[in-house]
Amino acid sequence: QADTVPQAPEDPLFGLMAAYRRDDDPKKVDLGIGAYRDNNAKPWVLPVVKKADEIIRKDPDLNHEYLPIAGLAEFTSASQKLLLGADSPALKEKRVTSLQTISGTGALHLGALFLSKFYRTNAKRTVYFSNPTWPNHFQVFSNVNLEYQQYPYFSKETRGLDFDGFIKTLKGADEGSIIVLHACAHNPTGVDPSQEQWKEIAKVMKERKLFPFLDTAYQGFASGDLDRDGWAIRHFVEQGFELVIAQSYAKNFGLYGERAGCFHFITAPSSDAEETTKRVASQLAILQRSEISNPPAYGARVASTVLNNPELFAQWKEDLKTMSGRIIDMRKALRSKLEELGTPGTWNHITEQIGMFSFTGLTEKQVLKLREDSHVYMTKNGRISMAGLNTNNVDYFAKAVDKALRD
Ligand code: PLP
Ligand code: TYF
Q1: Which one of 22, 127, 152, 199 has the lowest number of neighbouring Cβ atoms within 10 Å?
Q2: What is the pLDDT of residues 92-145, one digit of tens each?
C-alpha cells in the first residue's frame, strides 16, 4: 500500500541547515534559522533560564507526573498576564481561556483545529496570511482543511509595509474571514505596522467583521520591551474582538526545543461571555486530550518560575535587552559597512526593520551566488537571521554582499 505515497519535498529551512553543516569552509556564515546566537555564533542559554533550572532541580517535591490537560496553571495564568497586562478587563471578566501547547506551532494548530470544527461565522472560513509569511502557516492551516488566501504586506519598492494593499484586501474580504496577524517582529520581513496603522487595521477588521488570529513568537525580542511588543495584541483586545492568540516562548526564553507555548481564546464582552468561555474551554480540552493528552512539563516550569518571580522577571528583561541589543548593534554595523563600501542600492531598511530577521532585497540568484562564492547561508527569499551576524563576521558578510551585487 505504501508504495503509493509520493515523496514530499525536504523542508527548505532544515535543508539549508544541513547544507551549512556539510560545508567545511572555516569562513562559513549561517544566517538561516531564526534562533539567537551569541557573539561567538553559539546558542545562548539565558542566564535567567539557568537560574530557574537550578531552582526547579532543587525542589525536593519535583516529580514527573503528568500535567493537567490544559497544562501548568501557574504558567498559563502568567502567560495571560504577560500578553494582556495583569489588570486586563478581559481577565477580570473571565473572558480568557488558555491551554499550554507544544510551543507556538502547537498553539497555531490547536487554534486552527478549533476553528475548523466550530467556526461558523463564514461558510468558507477562509484564512488570510500576510504575503510573505512564515511558511509553516500554510501547512498548519491546510492540515485542518482550512482554505487560505494572502493579503499584500511587503512592498518591494520601499522594503516596508504595503499598507494600502493590506487595507484594501481586508476591506474586500468576506465577512467572518480569519486574518492571521504577526503581533510583532514579522517573520520573514522584519516589517511591522506602526501603532497608527494597527489602529486602522483593527478598525477595518471590526467594520468588516473579520476574526483576528494573532501569532506572537517574538514578544520582548523586537524592541527589548515586553509592553511595547505586546501593544498590538492589547489594542485588539481593547477593541472588544472575539479573537485567538498563539504564543511561543521559543525565542524570548531561548527554550526552542523545550516546546513551551500557550493558546488563548478571548470571548467578546457580553452578558454571557463567561459561560461561552467555559464551553470553549471544554471543547479545547477534548481536542488537546485527543492529540497530546497533556503538554510537556520542563519548558513551562522554567518559564513559569521566571514569570512568577519578580526578581527573575527583572533579570529576564535584562536578558531580552542583551539579545535585542546585540541584534540592533548588528543592524547598525551591517548598514554602515554596506554604505561605507558603496554597495549598490540603499540600506536604510536594514536598521528600520526589527526583530530576528531582515529582508535584504537580495534575489534568489544573488542568494545562491553568496552561498557558492562566500559560504554564506540564507533562505532563497533573501531573508537573513540577524542573530547569525557578530563582530567577527559582519564585515566579511558585507563584503560578500558587495561582491555579489557587483558581479
Ligand atoms: N510563528 C512565527 C511567525 C514564527 O516565526 C515562529 C517561530 O519561528 C512560530 C510561530 C513558532 O515557533 P515554535 O513552534 O518553535 O514556537
Ligand atoms: O523562520 C524560522 O527560522 C523558523 C525556525 O519549530 C523554526 O521557522 C524552526 C523550528 C520550529 C519553529 C521555527
Answers
A1: 22
A2: 999 999 999 999 999 999 999 999 999 987 667 899 999 999 999 999 999 999
Q: Where do the structural domains in the chain lie, given as residue ranges? A: 11-44+324-406, 73-308
> Catalytic residue at 38?
no
217 CA to middle of ligand 1, Å? 5
Q: Is 67 within 8 Å of 212 (Cβ atoms)?
A: no
Question: What average pLDDT does this structure show over 181-206?
Answer: 97
Ligand nearest, relative to CA of residue 387: 2
SS3 322: helix
Q: Contact 343/323 with Cβ under 8 angstroms?
A: no
pLDDT tens digit sequence for 315-329: 999 999 999 999 999
* Topology of the domain covering 73-308: Aspartate Aminotransferase; domain 2 (3.40.640)
What CATH number does the domain located at 11-44+324-406 have? 3.90.1150.10
CA of 105 to the centre of ligand 1 (A): 6
Residues with CB under 6 A from ligand 1: 34, 103-105, 134, 182, 187, 215, 217, 248, 250, 261
φ, ψ of residue 83 to 5 degrees: the values are -75, -50
Angle at which helices 310-341 and 47-58 cross, to 10°: 150
CA of 134, closest atom in ligand 2: 1
Looking at the chain, the whole-number percentage of residues with pLDDT higher than 70 is 100
CA R_g for the chain: 22
* 3-class state of residue 189 by DSSP: coil
Cis peptide before 188 (omega within 30 of 0): yes
pLDDT in tens, 204-240: 999 999 999 999 999 998 888 999 999 999 999 999 9
What's the pLDDT score for residue 402? 96
314 CB-near residues (< 8 Å, 6+ apart): none
HSE-up (13 A, CA, CB side) for residue 59: 13
